[in-house]
Every structure is written in C-alpha cells, then in structure tokens.
Amino acid sequence: MNAVKIGLIGLGTVGAGTLEILQRNSRDIAGRAGRDIRVTRAAVQNLAKQRMVDTTGIELTDDPMQVVNDPDIDIVVELIGGDGIAREVVLRAIENGKHVVTANKALIALHGNHIFEKAQEKGLMVAFEAAVAGGIPIIKSLREGLSANRIQWLAGIINGTCNYILTRMEQDGLDFSEVLKEAQSLGYAEADPTFDIEGIDAAHKLTILASIAFGIPLQFDKVYVEGITGVTIDDIRYAGELGFRIKHLGIARRNQDGIELRVHPALIPEQRLIANVDGVMNAALVMADAVGPTLYYGAGAGAEPTGSAVVADIVDVVRALTSDPNNRVPHLAFQPGSLAALPIMHIGQVETAFYLRMSVINRPGVLAAITRIFGDSEISIATILQKGHDAKGKEVTIIMLTQVTPGNYMSNAVEQIEKLDAVTSKITAIRLENLA
Amino acid sequence: MNAVKIGLIGLGTVGAGTLEILQRNSRDIAGRAGRDIRVTRAAVQNLAKQRMVDTTGIELTDDPMQVVNDPDIDIVVELIGGDGIAREVVLRAIENGKHVVTANKALIALHGNHIFEKAQEKGLMVAFEAAVAGGIPIIKSLREGLSANRIQWLAGIINGTCNYILTRMEQDGLDFSEVLKEAQSLGYAEADPTFDIEGIDAAHKLTILASIAFGIPLQFDKVYVEGITGVTIDDIRYAGELGFRIKHLGIARRNQDGIELRVHPALIPEQRLIANVDGVMNAALVMADAVGPTLYYGAGAGAEPTGSAVVADIVDVVRALTSDPNNRVPHLAFQPGSLAALPIMHIGQVETAFYLRMSVINRPGVLAAITRIFGDSEISIATILQKGHDAKGKEVTIIMLTQVTPGNYMSNAVEQIEKLDAVTSKITAIRLENLA
User: Fold this and answer.
1) Cβ–Cβ under 8 Å, residues B231 and B170
2) What percent of chain A has a predicted confidence (pLDDT) above 70?
3) Nearest CA of chain B to the CA of A420: how many Å?
4) Which residues in B217-232 are b (16+ Cβ under 10 Å) and which e?
C-alpha cells in the first residue's frame, strides 16, 4: 500500500521529537501499522532557523495553511499549541477532509466539543493522546482499555512542573521560590510558570480525562482550580509527620449530586503508590466498578515521551483509515448521542477531609473557641497537633486534620476562626484525599 | 444497528464476572461501542448447577460446539481455560468465521502462533487482553499505546499468588508454607498451586508480553522458569536490610545477543514504584526508547477485573468488525510478515547481578577461599555481610551481592564453593535487578 502522508504543523520540541521517532523507528512503526508513514510537509515558525532534526525530503513552509490545504496530505499533526492559530489549522484540516492528531490540551479542553462535532460530521478522526500525561497511554486506557467499566473517580499527577517542585521541596527542604527558580533553569518550568503552578495546565488535562471517563461534554470553565503557590515547606513537613505526602492532583469523581471536577494540592497517604510518584513523572489512578483501581505511570512531558503519544495516535488513525466512521472509538469515549448531561458540582458542595494550619497565641480558651466553631459548623476534628513554644502568650502553630465535610462548611468555619483575636495568621487549608 | 451476538463458552468465575458486567453496564457499554452487545448463548459444564448470575434470555447448553457452530453468533468468548477443549473451541470458531475473545494464557502461549495464523487466513480477530495481568490494559498499552517505541525491556509482577505470598512473608514474618496454606483458604492460591508458585503461569504471560513487545513468535518452551519455593523469610529480611525487596518477576529484555526471557524471584531496589506493588496486585514496568519507563498497575485476577478485560476486548472487536482485516491491530503487534527471528538467549548467557546466601564454618581462610573462587570466575563482589556467631568454629551465614555476571559463570562458581569443606549448605542464589 502507499505510504500515509503526514503534514506536521510545528517543529518545536514535540515536533522535533515526533519526527525523530518516525525516522529512527520507521521500520518497526511500519511493521506495526501495516503501512509506511512519511512526513512529507512541515510548517515551521522560522524557515531560516537551524533544525535539531533531519528534514531531508520534507517540504518546509512557514505557512501552516499550505500544509493543511495540500490535497496530498492524509493526516495533519498539529504541534504548535495554544488555541489561536492551532484552532484555525485544526478546523481547516477537518474542513479539508483530513484526519488530525494533536498534542494540544488547551485546544481540546476549550474547543474540543466544537472540533469533535465538525469532525463527526465529516467522518474524521481527531486523536489527542499526547494532550494528557505525555507518553502515558491514559486516554487509550480509559477510553478503550476500561470500556467495560463505570468509572467512579480518577486522580492524577498531571503536571510535571508542580510535581517536580513539590518533590524537591520535600526531599531537600527548600522553599517554593527557590525550587521554582531551579526548575526554570533546568527547563522543567517555563519563564512564565503561571499556567503550570496555578493549576491551569492540569485543569485542561483534567477536563479531558473527566469527559472521557464519564461521557460528559468538555467543561473547562467549571473546573475548580488551585495551584501550589500556597504550599509551604512547613506544610510538607507536618503532612509527613502525619503519614501523608502533598501532591498536586486533578480529581474527577462521580457522585449522586453530579460530577466533581477539581485541581488542587492534596495530602495523600504516603503508602499509596501514587504518593511515591516523584519529580517530573506523571501518574493517573483510576477507580472503576469492574476492574477496581488501576494506575498508569510515566513521563508527562518532553520531546520524545510526548512524541511517542503523537506517533501512537498516527498509527491508530492509519489503522482505522478504512473503518466505518460510525464504528470507530468515539472522541469522548461515548457515541455523541450517548453523552451525559450530568451537572458539575460547585466546590462548596464537594465533600473532602482537610488539613489546616494556623498560628495562634497560646492562651487559655483559644483551642476551645476554635473547636467550638468547628462543632457549630458540623465539622469533626480527627487530629490536632500543636507545634512551637509551650509558654503562655507565645505564638504556636496548630495543625488539624478534619473528617469529610462540604467545602462551604469549611470556608465558613475558616472565616469565623480567622476573626478570633488569638488567631494571628490566615489559615492554610489543604484537602486530604484517602484515594482508596 | 443490530445487537452483536456473543456466545460465551464457560460460566465459571470469569464467565460469570463477564456476564455480570455486560448486564450491569449494558447502557454505558453500548454507548461506547455504538452497538448493543448481547450474550445469546452460553456453554456450561453442568446444566443442573445453580448459577451466580442471571441467565435469563441466554440459551444454555453443555456442548461448547453448539455455541461455536451457531450461525447467529458473531463473537465466541472462550473462558474455560487450559489447552484441551479450549483449543478445539477456538479453532472451530475461527473455521466457522467467528471472531474470538479469550482470557486463556496457556492457550495463547502454547498455541497462539497456530491460532493467529488460522485467524489471519480468515481475516478474523482473536483478542486476549484478559490473558495477561487481568484487568490491566497491558496488551493494549504495549501493542497500541507504545507503538512508536522500540521496547528495550519489561519486568512484570504477573502472578498474584506469588506476589501475595511474598508480601505476606515479608509483612508478617511468616514462612512460605504457612502463607501458602492461608492463601489457599482465601482462594488466592489453587488447591494444586504448582502452576503459580513454580512460575509456569507467569511464564505463559511473559511469553505473550515478550512477543508483543519485540515482535517475535510465541516461544513458551524457551522461557527460563523459576518459582518462589526457594525464597525464605531470611532472604526477604537480608534483602530488606540491604535496601531491596524480593518480587517474583517476568523479565524480557532485548540485547545484542538476542532476547532474554526469564521468570524468577529477584531483589529490586525498595524505592522503585514496582517494588511497592503488594498483595495480589499486578504491575508491569516497560522501558522503551522514546517514552522511557511506563508502569501499569491493577488487579491481575478475579471475576470482574478479568471480566473487565474480556468485555473491553469484545468492544474492540465490535468497533473493528467493519474495518479492513489487513489494517487491524496485528495479533502480535507486528504484521505477520514483520515478525523478527531474534534468538532467545540461554539463561547461562544472561547477565545479572546476584544475591547469595550460604552457611559456612567461621574459621580462618574460609572467606579467602570463597572470594578466590569468585575472582577466578571473573565475578566481582559488591557487598558482603556476615550474620551470626563471631566465635571460631561456629556456623555463620554469609550474604553477598555480586556485580553483573553471566549465569553460567555464577553456576560454576557456586558449584565450586559448595564443594568447600567449610561450606555447610547449598547456596541460595537470587538474581538482583536494578530496573532503571
């Protein structure tokens, strides 16, 4: 059979990784796909720039639309990122009847519903394994490997920058800002790290995972998002004393009032496998009714790990080229008519346990006042630790673990406690997840 | 579209689990597959027996061939196990032009080459995700998710019985035989546990994983197989002191002299994620050139975990019913013409580090004699621990960790050392794997 012709949009880190893999492993890949796969055209930002990869035999252009409009191209691979030009490129490719592979989480999270609708109309595939957790085949596992299951919840370490920072803080007792600077110099964090450390990148990925897990439309704007900038080395130490590690998680859970969609730091029991996923590595833990817990671990970013997922998607598309469009793996795991209109819960309704840290003046009646507020708010305390001076009148740190309680009960209680004279700081509240 | 009609052969543990899932999650599964999936006929061993599942609407028979020969059946699901009747059932199903789903590792490991050849001739699918590591989608991940990669090695905890026994020995300081009895009473081990504890079950699964990973024919008879009956609680303790845990692993590795295929207990560094996979859970760690390490974790057995994989295979087959047979996922990951004739290495050639335990009489010159034999055999010692009485003439235990050395160098050295007068026991030698 003829080689399948790929048009590559973007030859940055992931583009170069993808091309490198297609070249190095071309024989194995063809042996698996049953057809040769050849990149014949590529769009780059700057034609004059020195390339890290061999582009012999590839027609280069700085106009993505030239690639997308080329009638010879079978599959458009979009690797420029963001939701500007990338969106136009993908929609035009679909209009032109081409299948699409993309690594673009923002694009899928924000515009996926529209893109998939257009693709569906034309009987085309849009594959996006590389958009979540880099080289880990988590989309495939959820959408195909667990297709027998009703998925109950999933929890993922899906931002390598956050995981690297938290790991280094813990292992080396460093402050957030020190580690961030180091991560930037190592290339593990962007010059502007906001997207990563504020949780937006993780929220894009969680949006996609939740859609596929529960068969709901993509709803990025309904994700509760909290980053890691409020986590201190003290919190990590106290959590450790109590047998927990702090990880930045994306969590999606089905319960009777709707779907929880939330990204935030969380204490998790140190003996959980996922609590031991360190550095830039990613992992997703999925709880499903038939199979029980399964976990998927690997590199969440980087040229070749992400390229690995892009190429796997290309092979999948090649294999399904001749299949009936109505019988392929649906974009969001369920056939378009079978998507569920489950409500997304407000974070105030979501029930979790909490870790709390506060500074108070050590004088009689303070703890009584605090615990009374919790009692009045129907919040049960599981553990209390007092750290610091025993002397009266000195500032001490109080650490508490609570039982499971709705988020708005907790924010009301926190607001009242912060008004107490003896409470000298804002209260740090971090959710605690048992993950079992 | 019409419902897809399934003929189920076997309604034991896995059969009942499969049926239960298909009934409970029928709406979700149809939403994913795009078609209803209905079990219309089932073959059971004893028609008079009380069923654990609802068989309303299913025509039961005690003759598997009646199901296989029924022209109405689209997919035959073989869940009786073993390589006797199961083989006939599967081959007849193929002859009759039916796709097959099976959870039968022995059948695939021993007769897969022939079965796939027959299926290929007829353009039929034979799916077998449930044959390895129960509900973990490891076949799918290797064959599709990592299709971009040249796989370098994989190491799996792929027998839950062995992992349960080793975990309980370690956590509770129990002897092998005590834990085995307990495992049998809990249903984690068979009345005749030979297949599990002697490593044969793991070897079946490793045979399949290695085929898919490297694109080689199934070669069960070339797997080196060692069980866990030789591992003592002392070995587990000494390994722990040195920072290792003992796990029963299936390992397949590509190197320049061929493919290593081996099942045996191994010391692995305790900080590895896979070292912390406990109890009956399974996991596979895969090292590949583009993505790096990925790990897959979950339940390796049980009615619904295995049923989860069976149903996922059914959905996959349903999705590919209309696709071009030459473009589907190849049975062994690579197109039949692309399978590699790589030699399987003899265990004597395979290079690993070793943990050694021996009893010796504590007298001058003994250690010199032992280390001289290692030196003459070109084996480097990394660590020596002496345990027990310091008094001269008393028996002491010596623990050694060696550097990487070919297996036959080690067996020669062990043979010579065992001949020394001062050496009072057989030497326990367990391989040590760094897994990084």
Assistant:
1) no
2) 100
3) 45
4) ebbbebbbbbbbbebe
What are the backbone angles phi and psi of residue B399, rounded to the nearest 5°? -110, 135
Q: What are the phi and psi torsion angles at A79 (to 5°)?
A: -130, 35
The structure tokens listed for A175 are: 């402050």
Q: What does the pLDDT read at residue B338?
A: 81
What pLDDT, on the 0 to 100 scale, is given for residue B335?
A: 87
Q: Are residues A400 and A355 in contact, defined by beta-carbon separation less than 8 angstroms?
A: yes
Query: What tokens were used for A64?
Result: 């993505």
Residue B151 pLDDT greater than 90, yes or no: yes
Question: Chain A contact for B142, CB < 8 A?
Answer: no
Q: What is the 3-state secondary structure (H, E, C) of A223-258?
A: CEECCCCCCCHHHHHHHHHCCEEEEEEEEEEEECCE
Q: Give the DSSP letter string of A72-97.
A: T-SEEEE-S-SSSHHHHHHHHHHHTT
Q: What phi and psi, each to the nearest 5 degrees, are found at residue B396?
A: -125, 160
With CA atoms as reference, the chain A residue closest to B32 would be A334
Contacts of A98 by beta carbon, 8 Å cutoff, 6+ apart:
A7, A68, A73, A74, A75, A76, A124
Quote the ipTM score. 0.96
Contact with chain A for residue B307, Cβ under 8 A: yes
Which residues have a Cβ under 8 Å from the Cβ of A5 and sit 6 or more positions away?
A38, A40, A41, A72, A73, A74, A75
Whole-number Å distance between alpha carbons of A420 and A361:
10
pLDDT in tens, A197-223: 999 999 999 999 999 999 999 999 999
CA distance A24 to A31: 13
Interchain proximity A295–B293, CB inside 8 Å: no
Note whether A307 contacts B290, CB cutoff 8 Å.
Answer: yes
Report how far residue B321's alpha carbon sits from residue B35's, in angstroms, rounded to the nearest whole number: 11
The predicted pLDDT at position B22 comes to 98
Of the candidates A374, A360, A336, the one whose C-alpha atom is nearest the C-alpha of residue A115 is A336
Do B245 and B268 form a contact (C-beta atoms < 8 A)? yes
Per-residue CA distances from A170 to A157, A232, A235, B34 (Å): 16, 10, 10, 47
pLDDT of B389 > 80? The answer is: no
Give, for A101, the enclosing helix (H) or strand (E).
strand A99-102
> Which residue of chain A is at minimal alpha-carbon distance from B150?
A25
Asked if B94 and B115 count as a contact pair (C-beta separation under 8 A), the reply is: yes
Interface of A with B in 203-222 (CB under 8 A): 215
pLDDT tens string B398-420: 999 999 999 999 999 999 999 99
* The two three-digit tokens of residue A411, written as one number: 């924010």
Q: Closest-CA residue in chain B for A332?
A: B32
- Is residue B152 within 8 angstroms of chain A, CB to CB? no
User: With an 8 Å Cβ cutoff, are B25 and A148 in contact?
Assistant: yes
As a whole number, the mean pLDDT across chain B is 96
Other Cβ atoms closer than 10 A to A37: 21
pLDDT band of residue B140 (cuts 50, 70, 90) is very high
A326/B34 CB distance under 8 A: yes
Question: All domains of chain B, ordered by start, with CATH?
Answer: 4-135+303-338 (3.40.50.720), 138-299 (3.30.360.10), 351-432 (3.30.70.260)
> Quick check: B390 pLDDT over 90?
no
Q: What is the pLDDT of residue B324?
A: 83
Q: What is the pLDDT of residue B52?
A: 84
Per-residue pLDDT reduced to its tens digit, A362-405: 998 999 999 999 999 999 999 999 988 777 888 999 999 999 99
Q: pLDDT tens across A165-198, in order? A: 999 999 999 999 999 999 999 888 888 999 999 9
What is the H or E stretch that residue B167 is in?
A: helix B160-172
Which residues of B are part of the catalytic machinery? 205
